[in-house]
Amino acid sequence: xxxxxxxxxxxxxxxxxxxxxxxxxxxxxxxxxxxxxxxxxxxxxxxxxxxxxxxxxxxxxxxxxxxxxxxxxxxxxxxxxxxxxxxxxxxxxxxxxxxxxxxxxxxxxxxxxxxxxxxxxxxxxxxxxxxxxxxxxxxxxxxxxxxxxxxxxxxxxxxxxxxxxxxxxxxxxxxxxxxxxxxxxxxxxxxxxxxxxxxxxxxxxxxxxxxxxxxxxxxxxxxxxxxxxxxx
Length: 232
Known about the structure:
Rossmann fold; 6-stranded mixed β-sheet; disordered C terminus
């Protein structure tokens, strides 16, 4: 028997309420987890330093016991206009002032935080890059306002270049979504201070970021090749 109009309506309302309750329950659990995580981070980062051993089996080295390692430091640095910036700094094993490594500024998108770049940052660090993943201005632990100081991109590039463990002649910029605008501002402010530029789901010429041309921003050979081949 085909249900009548009122019965179908009642069933739809019941089903909608069921999913609303499920969503509310899951969302409440997520909020509780984030609060607990923030409290743990605050205590863990009390000394502004954390050592993390990211272990993953290497596919390039024959020894099955060989692992790549890196340190992660929770840092604060002063940006433009007295803005305190927050970031995670990923340092590959063996990198020192006497043995500097190439650097990468990796910036998250809108309403995200520095941890959103973990996937990129850890993999970059495993491959030998020092990575600075900042909270954009007005995001995470960085001072407001949001969108201020070029989203924090130029200040992040300046800070990364100030580190003696970084090879200043080999610095890349990587940004996702609004993070792409942040590295665009960094590239525009310091056009000679970076070597490679990578966007994910972003664009040039948006909200103050410079327009893209054939010469600027510079991209790495492999990223240009991949972008070109993906449209063939």
